[in-house]
Design a protein that fits this description.
Elements (H helix, E strand, L loop, with lengths): L4 E13 L3 E12 L2 H22 L5 E6 L3 E5 L12 E12 L2 H11 L5 E9 L2 H29 L5 E8 L13 E3 L2 E2 L11 E13 L1
Antiparallel strand pairs: 1-10, 2-5, 2-6, 3-5, 4-5, 6-9, 7-10, 8-10
Length: 215
């Protein structure tokens, strides 16, 4: 072939990495027909969680924690006969705690949820910022190498041996198809209290598109 041939390919790569931190979210929720009583019960349950976190803050396993402001709303539920019942006041707040040890995280969840007003809303597993940046760079390079290998394979099938990159972009930017662009962190959500928390691996995946000229 005397004319250059344009080859457009996709490259991808992923790595599965053990998470370094678990971010647990627990909610404290109370309801009562008396607004003051609902707020008092919320304050008591919330203070127990707060005191426990402050004690655990001395441990290296607890990285950080935060709490939201208390929220309250009122509704009037419907009775079995279709009539409106007396107002019920709902009070709530949320705690977010970051642990770098799964056993310590599990122990905290077990302790906190012994209070019926406290429920586990979920756990997100993640990497530290430094590890995530290194992983994204490493996986992105591997995705580009995958695209180069594909382009060279196509070129060789056509009897072409000189392949030059023209464009490289996140997946979906060179084609009209919708695709996930760039590095993507996939986080798992777990787990019920009363069991051992088993962190899922964090998947770091990158998809790219590239256009090459071959002759």
């Amino acid at each position: 072939m005397s004319e250059d041939v344009t080859i457009t390919v996709r490259g991808s790569h992923e790595e599965r990495i053990s998470p370094e931190e678990g971010v647990a979210r627990i909610g404290v929720r109370v309801e009562h027909i008396d607004r003051a009583e609902a707020m008092a019960r919320l304050a008591a349950s919330g203070q127990r969680v707060r005191d426990d976190l402050e004690r655990r803050a001395a441990s290296d396993d607890l990285v950080s924690w935060t709490s939201s402001r208390a929220q309250v709303f009122t509704d009037r539920p419907w009775g079995p006969d279709g009539s409106r019942l007396d107002p019920v006041h709902h009070a709530s707040l949320e705690f977010r705690a970051v642990f770098d040890d799964a056993d310590a995280l599990s122990a905290w969840i077990d302790a906190a949820t012994t209070d019926p007003a406290v429920q586990l809303d979920g756990i997100d597993w993640r990497l530290t910022e430094a590890t995530a940046l290194d992983a994204r760079d490493r996986v992105a390079r591997a995705a580009v190498e995958d695209a180069v290998a594909r382009a060279r394979s196509y070129a060789a099938s056509l009897g072409l041996h000189h392949v030059t990159a023209i464009e490289v972009a996140d997946a979906g930017l060179l084609s009209s198809e919708s695709a996930a662009a760039g590095p993507m962190m996939m986080k798992s959500v777990a787990a019920d209290s009363g069991i051992v928390v088993r962190p899922d691996e964090v998947v770091v995946a990158v998809g790219i598109e590239a256009r090459f000229s071959a002759r």
